[in-house]
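Researcher: I'd like a candidate sequence for this fold, 541 residues long. If you have to choose between options at a position, lean toward the conservative one.
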């Protein structure tokens, strides 16, 4: 809730939606250290109210300059992670000092604020600094994130000193105990540097030097030079259309392809909650993931058919392969987007560092029509678990988002961005605006896109659109919310889906945590909603 309060405070002070999202994000870096942080990354879609301009700020990680395609030894004795890529021996791409890639969170948020915010950066960061000065009481959410990584935390003394108490789990507030508090004073110092100096307060000087020193002392490859060279990818994407609404996904090809496929079907006529709709959503997601995981590569570093993956013509061709009488054979075979490809020439693209080599979400809208949707992440809970001494910074573990096989589209290369596969959705038609973001790994796509479909295709109010049960598919199993009726589940199985029923309990986040805001173009009414309720908050002033 502190994140929501920080964003609303910026609006009360006369700031805009970009100020609100940046304030909420930096506050999140303090109060959700398991989900996001200044050592992480994200994607931000925004609309500038006075001009109607849509801007995407892709501030995903990049591989360090010393990264190599074969830098990790593979361990085929373990099941792949949710990306489908092999695990690395000793899980070195997942925790420890080889796991961090070059973080983009601070650069992306500062770039967006510098160009489109209205308040001073120091003012926008005030709530985050206050939260860090106060220290963070241990909560059940934090404990749920910490427990699965307890053994790894104990291997890293800096992380253990912050998160544990003499090697044991910290206390959470209960009937007879006060919660242990995490000391965030060092993080407060880092935030003050950023407030005073902007992005250079993180990417140069003492913070960058401390990061390099800690990484080098333990055999890692991330350097101060990598940090200094980082630039976000700033895009003026050509919006696509869904049911007449123009939309962007912040350069997420999975989101584009799935919506391109669904746009070819009359979902409204099939009925909200019907087996046909859930079937097509699962098929569209499955195709989009199968295609992107096969073909996506960073176009700043090497040729890749990213335009083809997002092409409406490719989506139409994929839709022609779908049937309401049967599911595609599993695993879904990838299709070839190259015949539909074009040059990667986003309008007004800003600089990116092509020469070098756990997740949360914040969305906001204001009366002037400014809107922003952010996904921000460390990849896993507390990222790599590398806590940099003197800074309070947990570094991401996003090197696991690359395919550790050499010679593949998403293989490691210096300066390269790995596949992301999760959309920040911003849709609009004149003064009507829908903006959404989510958390929960690749389940973000399921959450954000189905909330959008529920609102646009079926006319559900925002709260109901987010609360409806969802399905998810990445080309193999179809994961189905247990609230979906047995008749619908049985029909999906008859169609050929490998149905796996899941409940969206605390700690699982089986179908994504989603936050969304809307503005009605006719009445000007603004609405906000977030769910599931046990892990989210929303507010309107």
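Model: Candidate sequence:
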């Amino acid at each position: 809730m502190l994140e929501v309060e920080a964003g609303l405070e910026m609006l009360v002070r006369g700031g805009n939606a970009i100020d609100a999202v940046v304030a909420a994000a930096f506050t999140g870096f303090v109060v959700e250290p398991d989900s996001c942080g200044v050592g992480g990354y994200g994607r931000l879609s925004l609309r500038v109210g006075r001009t109607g301009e849509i801007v995407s700020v892709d501030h995903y990680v990049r591989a360090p300059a010393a990264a190599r395609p074969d830098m990790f030894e593979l361990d085929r004795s373990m099941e792949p992670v949710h990306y489908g890529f092999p695990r690395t021996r000793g899980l070195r791409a997942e925790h420890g000092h080889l796991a961090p890639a070059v973080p983009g969170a601070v650069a992306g948020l500062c770039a967006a604020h510098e160009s489109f915010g209205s308040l001073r950066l120091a003012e926008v960061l005030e709530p985050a600094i206050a939260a860090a000065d106060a220290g963070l009481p241990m909560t059940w959410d934090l404990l749920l994130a910490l427990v699965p990584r307890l053994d790894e935390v104990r291997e890293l003394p800096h992380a253990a000193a912050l998160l544990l108490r003499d090697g044991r789990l910290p206390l959470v507030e209960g009937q007879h105990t006060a919660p242990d508090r995490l000391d965030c004073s060092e993080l407060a110092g880092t935030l003050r540097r950023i407030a005073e100096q902007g992005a250079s307060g993180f990417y140069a000087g003492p913070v960058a030097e401390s990061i390099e020193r800690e990484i080098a002392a333990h055999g890692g490859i991330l350097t101060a030079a990598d940090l200094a060279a980082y630039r976000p990818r700033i895009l003026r994407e050509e919006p696509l259309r869904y049911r007449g609404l123009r939309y962007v996904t912040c350069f997420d090809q999975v989101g584009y392809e799935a919506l391109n496929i669904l746009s070819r079907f009359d979902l409204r006529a099939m009925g909200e909650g019907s087996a046909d709709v859930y079937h097509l959503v699962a098929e569209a997601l499955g195709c989009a993931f199968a295609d992107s995981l096969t073909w996506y590569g960073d176009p700043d570093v090497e040729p890749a058919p990213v335009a083809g993956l997002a092409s409406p013509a490719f989506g139409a061709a994929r839709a022609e392969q779908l049937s309401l009488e049967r599911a595609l054979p599993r695993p879904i075979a990838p299709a070839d987007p190259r015949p539909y490809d074009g040059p990667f020439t986003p309008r007004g693209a800003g600089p990116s560092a092509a020469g070098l080599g756990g997740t949360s979400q914040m969305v906001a809208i204001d009366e002037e029509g400014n809107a922003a949707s952010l996904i921000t992440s460390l990849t896993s809970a507390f990222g790599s678990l590398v806590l940099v001494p003197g800074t309070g910074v947990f570094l991401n573990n996003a090197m696991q988002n690359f395919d550790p096989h050499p010679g593949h589209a998403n293989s490691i290369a210096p300066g390269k961005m790995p596949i992301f596969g999760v959309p920040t959705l911003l849709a609009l038609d004149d003064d009507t605006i829908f903006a959404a973001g989510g958390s929960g790994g690749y389940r973000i796509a399921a959450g954000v896109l189905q909330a959008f479909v529920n609102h646009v295709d079926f006319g559900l109010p925002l709260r109901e659109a987010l609360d409806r049960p969802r399905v998810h598919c990445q080309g193999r199993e179809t994961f189905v919310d247990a609230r979906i009726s047995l008749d619908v589940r049985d029909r999906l199985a008859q169609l050929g889906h490998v149905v796996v029923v899941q409940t969206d309990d605390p700690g699982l986040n089986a179908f994504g945590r989603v936050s969304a805001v809307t503005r009605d173009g006719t009445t000007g009414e603004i609405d906000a909603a977030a769910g599931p309720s046990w892990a989210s908050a929303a507010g309107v002033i």
